[in-house]
Amino acid sequence: MCCISNKLWIALFCLISIPAFSQQQKAENGHISLKLQQLLKTGQDLDGNWLIYWDTLLDPDAFREPNQLPEAEAIKFPSLWNGKMIAGKKRTGRGKATYRLKISLDQQPDTLLGLFLPDFFTAYKVWVNGREVAANGQVGWDRRSSKPHWLPQVKNITTNARELDLILQISNYHHRKGGVTESIRIGASERLADDLNRRFFFIFLILGLFLMTGFFLFAFWFVGKKEKGVLFFSLFCIVHSYYLVGSEHYPLHHLFPNLPFALTVRLEYLSLYWSLGLYWLIAGLLFPNVIRRQWIRATLVLCTLYSLWTIFGPVSFFSSTLNVFLAIIFLSMCYGMWQFFRSFEKERPGLGFGRVGFACLFFMAVYSIGDNINLWQVNTFVEFTSYLGFLLGQSMQYVAQFAQEQKRTADEASAASQAKTDFLATMSHEIRTPMNGVVGMADLLSKTPLNPEQTEYLTAIKSSGQNLVAILNDILDLSKIEAEKMQLESRLFNLPDLIREVVGVLRESLQEKDLAFLERIDEDVPRYLNGDPIRLRQILLNLLSNAIKFTQKGSVGLHLYRHGVGEGKIQLGMEVRDTGIGMSDQQLTRLFEPFTQAETSTYRKYGGTGLGLAIIHRLIQIMNGSINVESELGGGSVFTVIIPFSLPNPRESGLPPEPQREPAVNVPTEALSERLPLNILVAEDHPINQQLMRAVLRRLGYQASFVDNGRKVIEAFEAQDFDLVFMDVQMPLMNGLEASSLLRAGENGSSPPTTIIAMTANALEGDREKCLAAGMDDYIAKPIQVTMIEAVILKWGARRWVGGKKV
To answer: Residue 549's pLDDT is what?
Structure first.
């Protein structure tokens, strides 16, 4: 890296030094001899000693009478008048003069020659062999008669003579500088024009890069990225873009040749001042630990004072202070380089790119200052390379900074998502734990003799508890969907059986409202499908429950049909129709928004959270399906759902087997412990839940053992063996997962493994998988009811007792 850097600096130095070390002919005492072929090939700077006639403006006619000419002096060309001893007098930049140079060619030119004329201070006129070739501004004898203008240009020499007599008039009454700072170049006209156009091309290319970067970053800042570094860098690019086209070769003046000199020179100086000011604002943010704020404030105050001086002062006055400002720029750049090297003590994301951009801009500033004080002439390629390095370095620094911010934002979002998940897990556990006691005890109480009034109160308690659990489940489902953690199953299921289960759950609600249920399954709908039956059941339950809820009389219908079929796929159509209250078009537009119902009165009359439809809408989207609603206020609603499912492959096993059904739970409870004698252990730390489980198991005929943490589970197994363990997950000292893992590790295979049932208030995505991974056999979520415990004992106890014998 160091080697590459050294080579780069050497190459740049060589490019800078080309004018200084070129071995071209020099004019002597107002005359220069040139070789035509060399001239046509490479061009020639007309540098050297020209003749000057001070304080006069001579045209070609004046030179026809040599005896009438004032005394001439040899003067170095190009050079400023300022401070020169000319005609025995120390000159300022103000005044007028005539230059003369005779050019001798070794042969008559057969190619059109041309002159490259830079910007002189501040108006000029050129003749070659008595013919006017070029003019810029208006040459005059005093301030009133002269008009300044800067416009570098290439002009043709229309004569083909071997001897060329070049006369140059210059006048300056408007600027501190007077005279010539750049070379006049002679060569093939076409080649000189190409060179100037190439310079303009590079300048406009840099201009485009600066403006594009500046306006893009300003828009980026304006629409929301309110970061000072972005704003300052964008303003620097916009401000400095004028300096690129409004100084040096002045390409802007070619596009708009009639711009007032007083305006353009002021804009040029202002863009220089605020390039420095914005540069230090950027540097202060780039190296905040090493650059003092006092320095930045002092620089901004200085730029402001110079700006006011430039705006309100005459050109000749404020231009006289430019060298002081250039010295300030140079000193500030030296200070900046010192701080640049100090910045290596501190590392931040993208700072390396920022250093590259800073170094390129520092180099360009020094290079430009050298051109302003006539140490060298700017090489366009070096200028372009330096600016490009600055833009790339600074842009990459912000890209790296933004990438770091995005990573930090993503990490914070991930942490917030995890915190949300942890919060939901905690709240789920904390709410389900007391609700387990409420719902479980209410369920037990409902199985005891009650009078009608007690039955009414108990029904309200059970309904309220079940509604709270349903709301909690809806919030957890919505959270999983929003976090994109909802996972779908893909297994074989019996569609008619699933429909019977759904209808069975809703039958009581239909009977209470005396609603007719119209069920229709088309004959071409397959009996067996591959997919997620749990989510399909959830979708149908929600749609049918809503249809029943919002229908006071009439009917609710379910129609299943084949919407489309492909290779191994089927588009299952499901239509839920009701004769209920219906919805307006306005209500339909927000139907699937979370926590939204048709109107406020709907909640007051029918209850609910407004989450159900939002959840199933997103579930259907996850299953790559669609849902459509047609409704008329007072005329009922029709929900149409289309979900793709896979068809089972009949070649794998002939006809698809009937899914295994859970054992029925209508066995008389007093006979269960006699039919399936089991030694049961319950691990539960909450006293109310212990009381509930003791009552439930006693009702089923079991006298179970109870412990309140995982360590006691291990101790209990050291004393005796158990057939079935109901294991809470969150317990003190040792949780249920650790206890289950230790129990599984201690099994030697000499006896059947103990059945472990997770019994927990944790109901988030992944909780079931964690329990099974720890060695548990099944999972039930709180709140629990008698039928749930009964079903689990029947399912797993039957595996312990086969043919009346314990295995």
So the answer is: 87
Please give the pLDDT value at position 666: 43
pLDDT of residue 126: 96
Residue partners of 477: CB distance under 8 A and separation at least 6: 486, 615, 619
Place of tokens 């199953």: 489
Residue-by-residue DSSP string for 87-98 = TTEE--S-EEEE
Give the three-class secondary structure for 373.
Answer: coil
Beta carbons within 10 angstroms of residue 468's beta carbon: 16
Cβ atoms of residues 57 and 135 within 8 Å: no
Integer Cα distance of 733 and 728 in angstroms: 13
- pLDDT score at 526: 92
> What is the 3 state secondary structure string of 21-36?
HCCCCCEECCEEEECH
Average pLDDT in the chain: 81
Give yes or no for a contact between 708 and 690, defined as CB atoms under 8 angstroms apart. Answer: yes
Q: Which of 657, 714, 633 has its CA nearest to residue 681?
A: 714
525-558 as b/e: b if 16+ CB within 10 A? beebbbbbbebbbbbbbbbbbbbbbbbeeebbbb
What whole-number distance in Å separates Cα of residue 727 and Cα of residue 740? Answer: 8
* Residue 786 near residue 445, CB atoms below 8 Å: no
With residue 575 as reference, give the H or E element that holds it.
strand 569-578
What is the pTM assigned to this prediction?
Answer: 0.55
Nearest Cα to Cα of residue 281 among 265, 298, 268: 298
Predicted pLDDT of residue 282 = 80
Percent of the chain with pLDDT over 70: 81
